[in-house]
Amino acid sequence: MDQFTLNLIVVGATFALYIGIAIWARAGSTAEFYAAGRGVNPIVNGMATGADWMSAASFISMAGIIAFGGYDTSAYLMGWTGGYVLLAMLLAPYLRKFGKFTVPEFIGDRFYSQTARTVAVICLIVASVTYVIGQMTGVGVAFSRFLEVDNATGLFIGAAIVFMYAVLGGMKGITYTQVAQYVVLIIAYTIPAIFISLQLTGNPLPPLGLFSDATATGKPILETLNGMMADLGFGSYTEQKDTTLNMFLFTVSLMIGTAGLPHVIVRFFTVPTVKDARSSAGWALVFIALLYLTAPAVGAMARMNLINTIYPDGTSAAPLAYEARPDWVKNWEKTGLLKFEDKNGDGLIQYAASKEANEFDVNRDIITLANPEIAQLPGWVIALVAAGGLAAALSTAAGLLMAISSAVSHDLIKSQINPNISEKNELLAARISMAVAIAVATYLGLNPPGFAAQTVALAFGLAASSIFPALMMGIFSKRINNTGAVAGMLAGLGVTIVYIFLHKGWFFVADTASFSDSDPLLLSIKSTSFGAVGALINFVVAFVVSGATKDTPAEIQELVESIRIPKGAGAAVDH
Amino acid sequence: MADNSSSNAYWKANIKTIQVFLVIWFVCSFGFGILLRPMLAGIGIGGTDLGFWFAQQGSIIVFLILIFAYAARMNKLDKEFGVEE
């Protein structure tokens, strides 16, 4: 059986499974559509949160970014896991106690202001749509490879499937399909990693393999890789190349963005008790850590295998002839995401750090998907990875679209524009907003502002600068009032979005950018790291403005008191 | 709602717990992984240094322990102060 047929069978089988579950659990009432009836066990919820959380950025893109960035990219690893500590201690239990359905609802009630709620909706939509653009980039890469079409066609097919999928079920469908998706994606991620770790080090556990000796050289993997990279003129894999300031702020930005992303927070509204909200965050991180502890090994080993493919006789000998290139290179050439240009006309593939000499151009987003092919693993592993990548992208895109649609239909239309809207029309509005979000994200996904993980990092910056500070201050300070919160959110989001647009182009249209991340406007702070600064601005503005305006009313102070203690957390209140 | 003095004491105990946990969280990620990495450069592990390990693996393991430890500690505090659900 050829690889294409095998891909179709494996991907088709997993899709049939997800769609089957979605139909079986089709959402009935609005309460079910948003929060899955609030009866989800912490371990199941943790697994679903894991699938929701680990998107195309984690699955498809991150290992490739690590493979090419080395130590500097540790920010992704620490940032996207460390945020769960903040979530578990600073947000999840109190938001569960509060007991409503959406993040803007909390902000609107705590800051007793419809304006605050509307601003929160705007922050949520801006962050989530940016996030979906990153997902679409990943979906495009995955579909283009496994259907063997060019990148744009892959993107359109992927967008159509995401739409059908998200519109079909609500959160309930999504909770159980996400459990299935988690299982598919984690198996797909770890199996090739185990094979590759065994091949290179003899150790079947990739996280240990990363720090073991390479069987080929007898020296540690990382030392061997550093040596190979030095031969080709690349900097050392384990050295820090980024500035400490940027790396620090980037990590902060990703961490607090994690704790501020509405599609993740909303998961903690669906557990039965406050106690479960705390442990749910832990279970989510257990399931996430399985992938995140594997990713650095996948990155380093993929880089090593990539160099070995081009330089089969070692980095000091002659490289591979273009005519002798392996099948995986030919396959990926079709997608346009891997290119070879024979600059010196010698028919050999030179791969080097210097721009003039390098003839081999690899899109980082293909590394995870190409990894099993590079390591010459069996066909079913390759098909499994394609299915896993799609599972990751689909589950997150669906979760984000849920967050967007509930913000529009529930927080905007039902609460402000037309309170008498029927349940049926509310669901219709939710679905229309999903369709619009997908269309926008697909259009922008054709010319994305970066690799999938980098685009997603921008979304984290936006969430970090707007939603996280508002939630945290709402819980930990009684003094922050309506005016302060609104001013803080607007200042944080505004400054961050302008900084991002200055570097990535206005509305992500690349040729309107005035600065670049290699030479940023402020010190060495890249646009992906600015969320941390935006968050600081948010906090300061909120405190200063609140200090200068009227104190919060007594009933709001009581509300804050009551969300701080678990006692009395009943079922959620609909309204 | 529980009486005010007990819930105030509960909240204070919670804040103190959070502070201690956040210090550990910070030191094991931003500290050992980034800011203090040069200080750990002498300690080798698998072809690199301990700071690299913390940045790519150690921090994640510490995060996991922290969340479950916090959940356990809060469950105990909930009972102690009589504010459990």
Write a structural description.
Chain A: One of its GO terms (molecular function) is symporter activity. Chain A: The chain crosses the membrane at residues 6-25, 53-71, 77-95, 116-133, 153-170, 182-200, 247-269, 281-302, 380-408, 428-446, 452-476, 483-502, 522-545. Chain A: One of its GO terms (biological process) is carboxylic acid transport. Chain A: It is found in: Membrane. The complex is a heterodimer of chains A (575) and B (85). Chain A is mainly α. Chain A has helices at residues 3-24, 30-35, 42-53, 56-69, 74-98, 103-110, 114-146, 151-168, 171-201, 206-209, 221-231, 244-258, 262-265, 274-310, 327-335, 367-374, 379-417, 423-445, 452-476, 482-504, 531-548, 554-564; strands spanning 338-340, 360-362. Chain A has a domain at 3-307 and 375-453: Sodium/glucose cotransporter (Up-down Bundle). In chain A, 69% of the residues lie in helices and 1% in strands. Chain A has a two-stranded antiparallel sheet with strand order 1-2. In chain A, helix 4 (56-69) crosses helix 19 (452-476), helix 7 packs antiparallel against helix 19 and helix 19 packs antiparallel against helix 20. The mean pLDDT of chain A is 86. Chain B has one domain. Chain B has a two-stranded antiparallel ribbon. Chain B is elongated. Classes of the chains: A mainly alpha (575), B mainly alpha (85). At the A-B interface, helix 5, helix 11, helix 12, helix 14 and helix 22 of A face helix 1, strand 2 and helix 2 of B.
